[in-house]
């Protein structure tokens, strides 16, 4: 059971996370906070001292006590890592295994958070619970952009080290590790052209707000504009029925009979949902390599999951090492072309 000082400290930290006090806001004086909570002034003084030592608040005269307003990293030895991701999922499963292996080598505890349902909002709730319970290092495989980025910024100001992986680009409050999406798409398109494709279809999915999908579609459009070859983006609603998917697959394959074409899936699940058997005429490509993609005869870009996991943990250690000198970095990895 937490003592009174810890209870007051945790309550104030949760109020900052919830947005009651924003970065730079003035906090109540020790006397005011004691009166509003019923705690003694001595207890509040001790809680404020702990928050100041952690860099969460700053106290000075004559400005008084304020919430810290600069990003800083938690220093010291990496003791535990909070990993927020989706399970079960082939790629996240491999990523969890790789992060777990890194933690074992560093004698650090892995704390796993799995959102239900798999949304950015639920991921944020897990991050807040972990942070208020003492987990100071988080790796987040963002589900979508459906969370309040300001709360993650507050987490950073509270001294939580953050690394985002894959789908969501966080901005200057966290490091980022992901695939070089532009290079991946260009590699697939160059391969398709070298094998005679005169027309290209990029298949994306709607209703999923993630940066990686947007980057891959943008890279497709850029390549079409640069080369002058024909290209078209097809977008699948997330609730597309199996019958509609079959019709689209048949349509794309029939068009490929007339004009040699390539179908490029934004990722493996999208390509697998569209084609259940290898097409007769169309070339198939996608980002991510799975056994199902290989069975379709598709070329794919394999992501170096192990190396990316090691980089995410390494960045957390770098944040601890740099402390107040930390600045956000973006680290992208080249994928490997896997031929059918």
Q: What does this 3D model show about the protein?
A:
With 340 residues, the protein is α/β, with parallel strands linked by helices. 45% of the residues lie in helices and 20% in strands. It has 12 helices and 14 strands. The chain has helices spanning 4-17, 30-37, 41-53, 90-106, 120-132, 149-157, 181-194, 211-227, 242-258, 268-274, 291-295, 305-322, and strands at residues 57-60, 64-67, 80-84, 109-113, 137-141, 161-165, 175-179, 199-205, 230-236, 261-265, 283-287, 299-302, 330-333, 336-338. Strands 4-3-5-6-7-13 form a 6-stranded parallel beta sheet, with helices on both faces. The protein has a 6-stranded mixed beta sheet with strand order 9-8-10-11-12-14, sandwiched between helices. It has a two-stranded antiparallel ribbon with strand order 1-2. Helix 1 (4-17) crosses helix 3. The mean pLDDT is 90.
